[in-house]
Amino acid sequence: MAASIKAGIVGGAGYAGGELLRLLLLHPNVELAFVQSRSQAGKPVYAAHPDLLGETELAFCADAAIPVDVLFLCAGHGEAAKFLAENEVPTETKIIDLSQDFRWHEGTSGDTVDASGRSFVYGLPELQREQIQQAQYIANPGCFATGIQLALLPLAKQSLLTSDVHVSGITGSTGAGQSLSATSHFSWRTENVSTYKVMEHQHLREIKRSLLYLQPEGQSDIHFIPYRGPFARGIFITAYLQSGLSLEEAQALYKSYYGGHPFTIISDQNPDLKQVVNTNKCVLYLQKHGSMLVITSLIDNLLKGAAGQAVQNMNLVFGLEETTGLKLKATAF
Amino acid sequence: MAASIKAGIVGGAGYAGGELLRLLLLHPNVELAFVQSRSQAGKPVYAAHPDLLGETELAFCADAAIPVDVLFLCAGHGEAAKFLAENEVPTETKIIDLSQDFRWHEGTSGDTVDASGRSFVYGLPELQREQIQQAQYIANPGCFATGIQLALLPLAKQSLLTSDVHVSGITGSTGAGQSLSATSHFSWRTENVSTYKVMEHQHLREIKRSLLYLQPEGQSDIHFIPYRGPFARGIFITAYLQSGLSLEEAQALYKSYYGGHPFTIISDQNPDLKQVVNTNKCVLYLQKHGSMLVITSLIDNLLKGAAGQAVQNMNLVFGLEETTGLKLKATAF
Amino acid sequence: MAASIKAGIVGGAGYAGGELLRLLLLHPNVELAFVQSRSQAGKPVYAAHPDLLGETELAFCADAAIPVDVLFLCAGHGEAAKFLAENEVPTETKIIDLSQDFRWHEGTSGDTVDASGRSFVYGLPELQREQIQQAQYIANPGCFATGIQLALLPLAKQSLLTSDVHVSGITGSTGAGQSLSATSHFSWRTENVSTYKVMEHQHLREIKRSLLYLQPEGQSDIHFIPYRGPFARGIFITAYLQSGLSLEEAQALYKSYYGGHPFTIISDQNPDLKQVVNTNKCVLYLQKHGSMLVITSLIDNLLKGAAGQAVQNMNLVFGLEETTGLKLKATAF
Amino acid sequence: MAASIKAGIVGGAGYAGGELLRLLLLHPNVELAFVQSRSQAGKPVYAAHPDLLGETELAFCADAAIPVDVLFLCAGHGEAAKFLAENEVPTETKIIDLSQDFRWHEGTSGDTVDASGRSFVYGLPELQREQIQQAQYIANPGCFATGIQLALLPLAKQSLLTSDVHVSGITGSTGAGQSLSATSHFSWRTENVSTYKVMEHQHLREIKRSLLYLQPEGQSDIHFIPYRGPFARGIFITAYLQSGLSLEEAQALYKSYYGGHPFTIISDQNPDLKQVVNTNKCVLYLQKHGSMLVITSLIDNLLKGAAGQAVQNMNLVFGLEETTGLKLKATAF
Question: What range(s) does the Semialdehyde dehydrogenase NAD-binding domain occupy (chains A, B, C, D) (predicted)?
């Protein structure tokens, strides 16, 4: 077995932090050095994540002083940049940030560089695995951003995004985190549906940057209707656009593009969301209706859309097999 | 109080039949003469609809021989035409059919005429209330068809459907009826999402016919992604298209169009599905993003999308106040 | 039509207040004079209860100065007593309080008298309808208290509660109100179960007082396991005890006891919770297993367990038919 | 790594078979030789279990002729006995049956012996791990039976079950398998609760046999109210009885009893069901209220209540570490 990677988590009391904990505790190459949380400092991690009772005796610590090989930032949007501005991190420590603070985005020409000169590589392995393998600092993509990009990357690679793309997507409640709000109240959300950030979801910025990276010219617009659905985990995305490809050509293109990527799978059957829940997989499904190519894309927002992809990136950065610690039993029901 | 309308239901054991029963039992102008069901004949109606225990001692009968003023057909697609072919219905009896058998549809020039020469008026009051008031035979619209049309009618009326319309919609499980299937199994459907009949939903045929009726020329295509959601009641629809209208102009147009229609309401706030659950209402909400006009449309598929609209049509046909028996307490949670 | 009853609601922005609004807006004998809410003062009621959009133009007011015939207090536990201490209420105004502040309870010999000398009658019509009809001030029972009492009253009336009673009950999320908490978060509650206040639920105090009222001697203990369930509305209760009654005798006893009570119904079939959701009904079901008599009791916690029962009490206090405004279409699904 | 165990599954298209597949595909010491299913023969396993797309290319076979080291029977109640009567199984093949066909039960003096003379050991490791380690044939316990026994074993071991035990338990929909029925229909089950087999659940027979094994004399009765809940996975059980133990004594007793058992954990906090969902764990929680000792017991019905426990038994039978292949990431949400 490879020597152990010492890992630390900043902001371990939230949803993404909890998922990361669950993954790292079972990862064969990782030794969890600390889990920091300001709100839970001093308490055992199972106080915040009761399913971890019996799995670990680790307690949350108040600050992140312990030297580690890799630091995961689950501190939330804005908080990651703040943490790095206020804390000294040794130059040899790798950093994987799950917030949007350092993701590339539309209107920039490349990776985001922070105040200390660290250059963050956008961590979508299916887009740029080689760059991730060489990276020291990773900006982990957003959940909707991951699902939508995986639906479109093969087309962009061939410069085939030449007409408007129409996207609708439904997200579970964990996508909004554990903060309490009217739309996270069970009485409201159960058996309910609503939209939010219609046409203006913030993930469009990183999506457009990635697509531009693959297809620098001739792109059309992306229109996106995000829905809140009455379930906890997962994102279900449907995208469509005019395409000259036949169904067979499209399937061949997608299978070829994702051939070497172990987590992204092309289904020949109409899929349902629970196929990917509690896994790091993305399932894609293609249909052709008239001139419209329709792409379905499913991920678990907390895994492939957050903590699972962070571990996938860690595996790549440290030269491990990409799937290490990520072969997960699906919940299925 | 007005003289009582004698009503009969054919196919009363299913979801739509049950909802109709619930409504008619509470309707001040209706006397329920019989409820027919082949599968439940002889059993009390609460055997199939246990919430009606204590509400009525009525039992299902095997055939529909009793003379009535109005006959509701809830027999299912194909079964309604079959029933009318095999049974004599007195000419003075009004018929309201909830199946798709007699709905008008794309490719025809008007109302559907059955084998006996009955001409069925398409029963969407917000489209053609006057025709319904004069009608003897009504074809009640489909649920998705109702929601999507109510989102688009004001634009068609002004011949403003001039670019492609992109629609996504999520339906609850009652939309698929009470038949048992893999996708109606609780273990499968809870916390799950899937699509079905992508771009090919059968309701598009009646929708297109209605829009053509209002706007005979220059229409563009409708693209429709229907989703199955993990909830029982309701349909949540989002439609968008390029539009030269400002938000204020669009709101004024919709408020004007629906001004005299008591069940269709324009919201100034972003709505959620449970606002309409267990009511006969349609809530519409308008947004403008760049050149896109986005219309949200919510209905309860079993009420405004089926049994409630059937009662609304009955009220119109018999000259009653349109809202009689349809002022319902929303479930809200 | 009878002359209108002018009604006011104090604390109208919460769940019980909202349900009361929905009921009173449709009640044929009620004119809603005001709805007070400190947090929502000045806003239209549909800002807090969006399903009421299009139903009323009423706005929340900041204080409850308008003279009314009946005042409903939905202010919450402790807040009702505080409101009455701080506000002058004309002596001719009837008061119906939905909090626990004035409910009778174990250890007292009768009705609760407040600081101003008002004597509150415990408002369970199936227990003491005559006293309610004569009352000026009503303390509306708790939700679990209503369901459990309705399961046991006929036995207590015959002094047949002679062995320990074992009760389990599952409540939906609306039972805990709209305040945000870890256990009301959708991500936590969906697909989840937990217990709370095991053996110590506060409603046991009023239950025991009522049972003692009917059966002053020889009672045994009540053991109660309350569960939180992953649904929004309703309470499902199972109670059992040793009983010498045969099933037929027990059924006869219950049918006789509830014969004149329109909302409490004895089912001959194994019932499910949704039979009562969005209605003011209580469905009871009896089984005998060996020497154990098992009683199932179902109510909608917000209606028969709160706002519906409050309207039922109002009807009784004002001499109206008990069911006026309470014949509600069940949601059923 | 230890030499591989060749495993076969009979009846692999159902829920338990699917879970077993998910576990065995990830088990480091198992090579899956075949998965049999009459209904799905010839199809890839992901046709029945779509989450396994990309995980295996295995297809269902029609019969179970291939020689294996261990045969898992997931054929259903009655079908297991039938399979063994109709098929030759080599004597050196271990058999783990998930049906109730060979479980011991009240009224018998020991293990169940089948028609071919095979003696099946009741496979509850926390009851009799040594016997399982020596066994050739295992009868895997029922789901409710597992949860209830784990709540009571430490008391029985000390002959402390001396007063009636009152049990209520709520099960998710997967407990009833994948067959379609009125109570498995999503429209019915969502937001609903009901009871079934009140006081007569068939698992009581095996529970009573186990308790008698530990405490041969002086037992009292078990009263059990099983509920159907609106969720897919898990069982939540509450049991209580009169007990002379203090809370501390009870906690010490349970911690001592389960000290060497890795999957059964005593919580000091009030737990919720999702702590164990998608794990092989049982979480127990103790409370003392007056003279009542209250025990909460939570398991995932498909894992510790079925397929997970079957793998645990396989590990014991083959001399592997008990937790091999069973360290699972909880779903948590």
Answer: 6-135
